[in-house]
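Thread: Newbie trying to understand structure tokens

Hi all, I'm a second-year student working on a class project, and my supervisor (Dr. K.) asked me to get a predicted structure for one chain before our next meeting. I've only ever worked with sequences, so writing a 3D structure as a token string is new to me. If someone could post the tokens and maybe explain what I'm looking at, I'd be very grateful. Here's the chain:
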Amino acid sequence: MSIVEQAVVTQWAPDGLWEIAAPLIPPAPRRRQGGGRRRGDDRAILAAILYMTEAGCSWPALPVVMFGVSRTTTHRRFTEWTAAGLWTRLHYFATSPPSGPPAAGLPAWRHRCRPGAGGPSAAGRRRRRRLRPAARPVAAG
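---
Reply by user tm_fold:
Sure, no problem. This is what the structure looks like when written as tokens:
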């Protein structure tokens, strides 16, 4: 991993968050036939997933050069981790740190874990839609 990639990964998955997430990430599945390619860096993949959630981009728009992991690998790992329940456990441990001083990097991420931090609820979106003025037809002429 290059110095630039390492800096971006550290920015999106700070040390404090990584200390919490690393033990929660499920171990790599054993391949019966053995061999295969070396597994991608879990921290870089976590950073890429967090970038996608913050930027709101789609899988094809993920900038591979920034994180040094492919889109396919990132999507596959996201699917594996979702099935393993990583996001629920990470949310629990990131918002409820053990007693003692908070780990470095947590305050920046805690506000994104609160209920409603992702934006208005569905009811709020419906209410806003009703309040918008109706479009008026343009007079021809």
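A couple of things are worth pointing out once you decode it. The chain has one domain: 3-130. The helical segments are 3-12, 15-21, 42-55, 64-67, 71-83, 86-95, 106-110, 122-131. Feel free to ask follow-ups in this thread.
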